Amino acid sequence: MRSQNLIRLSGAVALCALSLGAAHAATGGEPAAVVQVDVAPCLAAAAADDMDKAGSACASVIDNEKTAKADLVKALVARGALYARHDQVDRAIADDSRALQLDPTLADLFNARGELWLKKGDKPKAVQDFGAALKIDPNHEKAKANHKAMARELERIGAQMAVAGKPSFNCRSAARAVEKAICANRELADLDREIFASNARAIREARNPAEAKALQREQDEFIVRRNAGFGRPGYDLKKAMQDRLQRLNGVDG
C-alpha cells in the first residue's frame, strides 16, 4: 500500500515538474528559439530588378513582426529603389518614408526621396529632403547639387509669383481705358509684362544702336496701335498682345 502511494506521489511530482518547466520557459526563464527572417531573397530579387520575386520576398520580410529592425530597413530601401526604377513613385516614397522613420540617419535615402518628390512636382518637400541629407552629410555631392538647383528654382518661382498678375506699368497711374483693362485682367497683365521684358531683351541683344532704335520704334508703334484700337468693333486686345509677344520671341516662341 505504501509502495503504491509512493509511486502515485512520484508521478504527480514529475508531472508538476514538467508543468513548471514549461511555464518557466514560456515566461522567459529559458530563451525560446527565435526564427530568423531571411532578408537575402528580397535584396537579391530587388538587385536583379525582378518585380515578381521581390514583391513576395520583400513582403515576407517587411510584413513579418519578427524581422529585425536593420533587416526591415534594408528590405524597405531595396523595395523602394525597385519601385522608383519602375516609376511607382508613391510606393517608393512610402517605403522610403517608413525606412527613414526607423533610421533617420540615411543621407542617401533622404536624397533619393527628394528626387522622388521632384517627380511628383512637390518642390518644397524635395528641397526639405535635400537639406536633411546635407544636414547628415554636408559633403553629399548629389544632395548638394540637387539642393542648389532647387533653391534657385524656388527663388525664380518666388520672383514670378511676386509679379504675377502685374503689368509692366504702375496700375495706380493707369489713365487709359486699355491700361485699366490690362490691370483688371491677370492674363493680360502677364502678357504686358512679358512683352515689355522680351522687348527689353531684344534691344539689349541688338547688333548696333541703329537696330536697337528700330526695335524700340516698333514697340512704340505697337503701343500706339493698341491704344487706338482698344474698344473698337472687332479689336481683340488679347490676340494683338499675343501676336506682339510671338513676334518679339520669334515664330517658335
Descriptive overview:
It is a single chain. By secondary structure, the protein is mostly helical. The protein is built from 12 helices and no strands. Helix 3 (51-62) packs antiparallel against helix 4, helix 4 (69-85) packs antiparallel against helix 5 (89-102) and helix 10 (186-204) packs parallel to helix 12. The longest helix has 25 residues, at 2-26. It starts with a helix and ends with a helix. The relative contact order is 0.05.
Tell me, what's the shape? elongated
Unreliable stretches: 1-27
Strand percent estimate: under 5%
Described by strand count, sense and barrel closure, the largest sheet is: none
Number of separate helices: 12
Signal peptide: 1-25
InterPro entries: TPR-like_helical_dom_sf, TPR_2, TPR_rpt
Protein name: Tetratricopeptide repeat protein
Keywords: Repeat, Signal, TPR repeat
Topology:
Elements (H helix, E strand, L loop, with lengths): L1 H25 L13 H8 L3 H12 L6 H17 L3 H14 L4 H14 L2 H14 L4 H23 L13 H7 L2 H19 L4 H21 L7 H13 L4
